[in-house]
Amino acid sequence: MPVLAAVAPGQNPVHYGLAAGSPIPLHAGAAGKAILAHCDGDVIGKLSLDALTPETTTQRDDLEHDLALVRERGWAEGEGERIFDAFGIAAPFFEGPHIAGSVTLTIPRDRKGEIDPARLGDALTRSAAQITRLLTL
Predict the structure, then answer these.
(1) Most buried of 23, 38, 51, 73 (most Cβ within 10 A)?
(2) What is the distance between the alpha carbons of residues 36 and 22, in angstroms, rounded to a whole number?
(3) Per-residue pLDDT for 56 more than 80?
């Protein structure tokens, strides 16, 4: 299971955060789905789709739909799937042809109305592309 490598806190007095080294479930939340969308199909088939919150996708067909959307637009979104009160956006980065991780922005779910998810998703996608270029040098 992938783990959270680094954390950069936001500027608001109340923020969401996990410690570096925290496991990232591939089927729940933006960070994991951004990665899972680019894994081999057998990885998805072997996953146990355990519910972490009432919002966690536990049906393979629903997960496959979410992953197709990630591949289409280039970034993932998760709302309350891993941590009930969190909203996240993530973009995958690669090392050569292989998925290497994701760049993720997570905020408290009640602040979602303050952001433009598509704009932030596109910005994360550009950042992830820069990381990919650095890893592929």
Answers:
(1) 38
(2) 17
(3) yes
